Amino acid sequence: MKILYVEDEIYMAKAVAQVLKKNNYSVDLAHDGESGLILATSDVYDIVILDIMLPKLDGISVLKEMRNKNITKPVILLTAKGEVEDKVRGLDSGADDYLAKPFQTEELMARLRALGRRKELVATNDTLIYGDIELNYNSLDLFANGHNFHLTLKESQLLELLIINKGRAISTQTIIEKLWGWDSDAEDSHVQVQIAFLRKKLSIISKKVKIKTIRGVGYMILESE
Ligand code: CA
Predict the structure, then answer these.
(1) N or C: which end of the chain has fewer CB within 10 A?
(2) 3-state secondary structure string across the chain
(3) Residue 48 Cα, ligand 1 centroid: separation in angstroms?
(4) CA 193, CA 189: separation in Å to the nearest integer?
(5) What residues have their beta carbon closer than 5 A to ion ligand 1?
(6) Are 208 and 131 in contact (CB under 8 A)?
(7) pLDDT, tens digit (0-9, with 9 covering 90-100), for 136-172
(8) pLDDT band for position 123 (50/70/90)?
(9) Residue 111 Cα, ligand 1 centroid: separation in angstroms?
């Protein structure tokens, strides 16, 4: 997997690149937004890690330009601590994930693995398949066994999150952060409601896929034989 890392703090860029290389990623660095955008528009890279505060062209503008050019490859945005607005703007601009600086490299690795898995799971551009279900997370349609349901955005986001993290439990807190944002006042009960809606729809059209409650942790998607 080849990564483009756009970061103007050169010392940090090199340190992170070293860790990535140790973990068998190949990495190219760009140190400003303009050169980052040029590299990002090539088809060489699988994932782009994009700092927001960059000289010449900021990260959000780079991301918007990429999405305008129909470059759909996954982008992780790096936000400085507390820049909640940047995070929101980033997600609105089409970022797949975000990470607050300073971050642990283990955290970055986990995000990269998740996006890598997602890449493998993607059958067409915007479809995730798990068991007997198929989710189009752009049209928000859930298909199974010749039937379909139109999901709400939250249900689709929740199902996407569960499928991407298949094989492990995902915490209620993570679900809140992903669906409502870090700074929201959403509570566990909001998650329970969304899970209940999604379970109901799954139970009607899927013969295999279930959402299991992992007591004290959160939820996990499961496929029964
Ligand atoms: Ca920066």
Answers:
(1) C
(2) CEEEEECCCHHHHHHHHHHHHHCCCEEEEECCHHHHHHHHCCCCCCEEEEECCCCCCCHHHHHHHHHHCCCCCCEEEEEECCCHHHHHHHHHCCCCEEEEECCCHHHHHHHHHHHHHHHHHECCCCEEEECCEEEECCCCEEEECCEEEECCHHHHHHHHHHHHCCCCCEEHHHHHHHHCCCCCCCCHHHHHHHHHHHHHHHHHHCCCEEEEEECCCEEEEEECC
(3) 15
(4) 6
(5) 8, 51, 53
(6) yes
(7) 887 888 999 888 888 888 999 999 999 988 888 999 9
(8) very low
(9) 20
Cα 75 from chain centroid (whole Å) = 8
Residue 16 Cα to ligand 1 midpoint, Å, equals 14
With 0.85 as the threshold, say if the pTM is over it.
Answer: no
Domains observed in the chain: 2-118 (3.40.50.2300), 124-223 (1.10.10.10)
Write out the two tokens for 21.
Answer: 């290389």
Q: Which of the 8 DSSP states describes residue 71?
A: -
